[in-house]
Amino acid sequence: MKKLFEFKTKTIVATGIGAALFMLLFMYVKVPTGIPETDVQTAYGLGSFFAALFGPIAGFLIAFIGHAISDAVQYGSPWWSWVVASGISCFIVGLAYPRLKVDEGVFGWKDVLTFNIFQILANVVAWIVVAPVLDIVVYGEPANLVFTQGAVAALWNAISMGVIGTLLLFLYSKTRAGKGTPARARCPRSEEPTDRQLSRGSSTVSLGRSNSPIIVHQACTLSPKERVRAFIASSLARI
After folding, report:
1. Closest-CA residue to 63 (of 22, 106, 115)
2. Cα dihedral sign for 117, 95, 171, 153?
3. 72-92: pLDDT as tens digits
4. 9-175: which CATH topology?
5. Under DSSP, is residue 203 helix (H, G, I), strand (E, B) or coil?
């Protein structure tokens, strides 16, 4: 069972890599929306991917650090209300971490739905509530402007996470296919033998001709020596 707030060595490494990639995407891979200081950020798709894989703490740190450094490099200092909102958005996405088994090669339609419910909720909370309220309280920004910016950011960041995040998780799950499959599920399926058989205990191996497959009952119960012996006997039976 995954622990929601576990923070292991691999999580620390992932956080460092994720923050660096988030910063680069945040600075260089974005699409203007027409609303001042509001862009479609591909970085959130990447951030949601890491959050779903490594949990809420990693998600928060990746987005918070990546956004803060990006602002500092581009503008001289971070715009803290949106930096905090970035961290909170990926933190909430990371709450889906215990419900997903992407690292075991599992990412079906139910998992896609789970991930996207969390990311939509994350964007609503972060950009329609947290960012505008902090803009007003901390920076004294006009309410009509910041809530418009927040609504646009929520929409486009949800699309970024929904498309890029889902695609990255799907592709990653394919590289992990079979990791969560029990060993016996990959053994040959038991069938009724149709030819001569070699029996030992409750395990049965058919020794028929080439059109009769080798059948193993109670999958994988033969020892390596017994499997070799069965293979040799099967080969001789086909001559």
Report:
1. 22
2. positive
3. 999 999 999 999 999 999 999
4. Arp2/3 complex 21 kDa subunit ARPC3 (1.10.1760)
5. strand
